[in-house]
């Protein structure tokens, strides 16, 4: 298994010269299966998914997309990625159920007139829209477990993805101080790589609580308690510059491996 970090920001894209080295695109991670060359699974589809096209041999995506939730920064790349809007695209999209509405209708709330020119069925290629199963399931050869995590503004899921003896967990938006269920602990327990919400620092806790996010400090404590092998600090604040992220990296003190996510980074699991 290999991870492609296609977008590592939260809330909004962050363009400009102060955001070049860590990248300005919002959340999207490609998961490449063991022995594969391209992602067959995408975790979220923020603006980072726009960068996928030129990385694919045919230019089109063929696989599945797991959405953690439906906030703009995790879905806004869908209609703007050429890899997801071609006649030869196959995309099976999974999203957390919200009160009985169909997945298609949920996605249409942000992608339909007057807010957007087309609805999801206007995307080219072969698409399916599915509710993420509550039980462990298989997708694209991976074993996936989903669990509901604490975050404001609609039901939000974290994911554990396993492939031939390796496991990663993806929890880009999370307020662990509001509670950690046994199911969420099980998602992150002893994973090879945890990509986790690290949008704020401790002196920004009031705004982190207002919006349902984690601080870097509590994310590191969480990963240590779960015996995570490598923690990837993810979902950076859109106002956190390259220089500020450099300084944060210098201040990290942990017994586990801690990496600050960079757009374009690849993470192999051996």
How would you concisely characterize the structure shown here?
By secondary structure, the chain is of the alpha/beta class. 16% of the residues lie in helices and 26% in strands.
**C-alpha-based Rg, rounded:** 17 Å
Shape: globular
Number of strands: 14
Average pLDDT over all residues: 95
First and last CA, distance? 8 Å
Strand order of the largest sheet: 6-5-4-3-2-1-14
- The percent range for strand residues is 25-35%
- The low-confidence parts are none
Structural class: alpha/beta
> What is the overall number of helices?
6
How helix-rich are the residues, as a percent range?
A: 10-25%
Please write the string of helix (H) and strand (E) elements: EEEEHEHEEEEEHEHHEHEE
Describe the largest sheet: 7 strands, mixed
Structure characterization notes:
It is built from six helices and 14 strands. A seven-stranded mixed beta sheet has the order 6-5-4-3-2-1-14, with no helix packed on it. The chain is α/β, with parallel strands linked by helices and 270 residues long. The protein has helices spanning 72-75, 103-108, 182-188, 205-211, 216-225, 242-250, and strands at 2-7, 28-32, 41-43, 62-66, 90-95, 126-131, 137-139, 142-148, 157-163, 166-171, 193-197, 230-234, 257-260, 266-268. 47% of the residues are buried. The longest helix has 10 residues, at 216-225.
List key phrases describing it.
seven-stranded mixed sheet, alpha/beta, 26% strand, 270 residues, globular
Give the SSE layout:
Layout: E1 2-7, E2 28-32, E3 41-43, E4 62-66, H1 72-75, E5 90-95, H2 103-108, E6 126-131, E7 137-139, E8 142-148, E9 157-163, E10 166-171, H3 182-188, E11 193-197, H4 205-211, H5 216-225, E12 230-234, H6 242-250, E13 257-260, E14 266-268
Parallel strand pairs: 3-4, 4-5, 5-6, 10-11, 11-12, 12-13
Antiparallel strand pairs: 1-2, 1-14, 2-3, 7-8, 8-9, 9-10
């Amino acid at each position: 298994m290999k991870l492609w970090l296609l977008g590592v920001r939260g809330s909004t894209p962050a363009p400009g010269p102060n955001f070049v080295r860590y990248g300005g695109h919002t959340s999207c991670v490609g998961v490449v299966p063991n022995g594969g060359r391209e992602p067959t699974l995408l975790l979220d589809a923020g603006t980072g998914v726009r960068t996928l096209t030129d990385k694919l041999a045919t230019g089109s995506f063929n696989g599945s997309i797991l959405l953690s939730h439906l906030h703009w920064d995790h879905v806004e790349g869908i209609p703007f990625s050429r890899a997801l809007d071609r006649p030869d695209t196959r995309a099976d999209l999974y999203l957390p159920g919200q009160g009985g509405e169909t997945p298609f209708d949920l996605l249409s709330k942000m992608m339909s007139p007057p807010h957007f020119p087309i609805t999801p069925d206007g995307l080219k290629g072969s698409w399916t829209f599915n509710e993420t199963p509550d039980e462990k399931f298989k997708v694209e050869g991976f074993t996936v477990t989903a669990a509901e995590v604490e975050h404001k503004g609609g039901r939000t899921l974290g994911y554990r993805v396993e492939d031939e003896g390796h496991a990663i967990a993806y929890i880009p938006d999370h307020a662990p101080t509001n509670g950690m269920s046994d199911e969420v602990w099980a998602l992150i327990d002893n994973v090879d790589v945890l990509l986790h919400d690290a949008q704020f620092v401790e002196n920004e806790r009031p705004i982190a609580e207002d919006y349902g996010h984690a601080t870097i400090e509590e994310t590191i404590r969480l990963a240590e308690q779960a015996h995570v092998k490598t923690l990837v600090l993810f979902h950076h604040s859109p106002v956190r510059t390259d220089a500020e992220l450099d300084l944060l990296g210098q201040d990290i003190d942990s017994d586990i491996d801690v990496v600050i996510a960079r757009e374009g980074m690849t993470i192999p699991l051996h």
